[in-house]
Design goal:
By secondary structure, the chain is α/β, with parallel strands linked by helices. It folds into 2 domains: 144 residues, Rossmann fold; 89 residues, no CATH class. The strands form 3 sheets. The protein has a 5-stranded parallel beta sheet, with helices on both faces. It has a 3-stranded parallel beta sheet with strand order 1-9-10, with helices on both faces. The longest helix has 21 residues. The N terminus is likely disordered.
Length: 257
């Protein structure tokens, strides 16, 4: 699980796939770089360089044009920017929308933000200090070698962030417990890390579940398991979230990176 700026990791929220998400912020289709005149095939970069890396790291990969939620596009996009466990942002062509959105994300969750750029031109001066991943293009596309290098670089950056997790927050529901992905890719490694003393697990009962039939029964929940948040009044639920925040703060301070 990825950490935020406090070193705290968050589980996936209940959803269709119950997988951690990487949101990709980049131009779509083919775009001309205004400085060099090179036409960049961003769809090819996404499909051959970015998505394979994200999926190899075990995350769900979503690009802005693949957003399926209804309502305002900007609302869904900003929700993804702030809530996705990881964001990959392509700074090639210095697209102003990408730079604005990168700034929003980097201010909120810098440690799981991965900027990338094509070496057809250097990034603007004010982002030169950002730890970005460069990639090479030939006639506006990734060569097989460049694609393999970009996949490896992005995957390694994601895995490094996952390895730095010191506190994990599990939002437990029947969907969570029924997910094979959660058990195989998240819960098992986290429990092993907790047993070794490297990670503290905080779990929050969202809805009634058979948690007592799992390894969670041996871990203390942040709020009473027999009274999950879904069964609380709004006032009690708000108070429970305040307690969760305090527990996260205390745990992150006692488990420095």
């Amino acid at each position: 699980m990825p950490e935020d700026s406090t070193g705290v990791a968050h589980s996936s929220l209940p959803g269709s796939a119950l997988r951690q998400t990487c949101f990709v912020d980049m131009p779509f289709g083919k775009k001309v770089d205004p400085k060099t005149g090179v036409t960049v095939d961003f769809d090819q970069v996404f499909h051959q360089g970015i998505r394979p890396a994200v999926e190899a790291a075990g995350l769900q990969c979503i690009r802005g044009d693949q957003e399926e939620t209804g309502g305002l596009i900007h609302t869904a996009m900003f929700a993804r920017l702030l809530l996705a466990e990881f964001v990959v942002a392509d700074m090639t062509t210095a697209n102003p929308n990408v730079f604005y959105e990168l700034g929003v994300r980097h201010a909120a969750r810098p440690y799981t933000t991965i900027p990338i750029f094509a070496t057809i031109g250097a990034p603007p001066f004010d982002v030169n200090g950002v730890r970005a991943i460069p990639y090479e293009l030939a006639e506006g596309k990734l060569t097989p070698e460049a694609a393999a290098s970009l996949v490896e670089s992005i995957k390694n950056r994601i895995q490094a962030a996952l390895a730095r997790t010191r506190v994990a927050v599990l939002l437990v529901s029947p969907d969570f417990l029924a997910s094979d992905f959660i058990h195989e890719k998240e819960l098992g490694p986290l429990l092993a890390a907790a047993e070794a003393g490297g990670v503290r697990i905080l779990w929050v009962p969202l809805r009634p579940s058979a948690y007592e039939e799992t390894s969670l029964k041996d871990l203390q929940a942040v709020s009473p398991p027999d009274k999950p948040l879904a069964q609380m009044s709004k006032a009690d639920r708000d108070a429970a979230w305040v307690l969760v925040c305090k527990e996260i703060k205390g745990a992150s301070q006692s488990h420095p990176r």
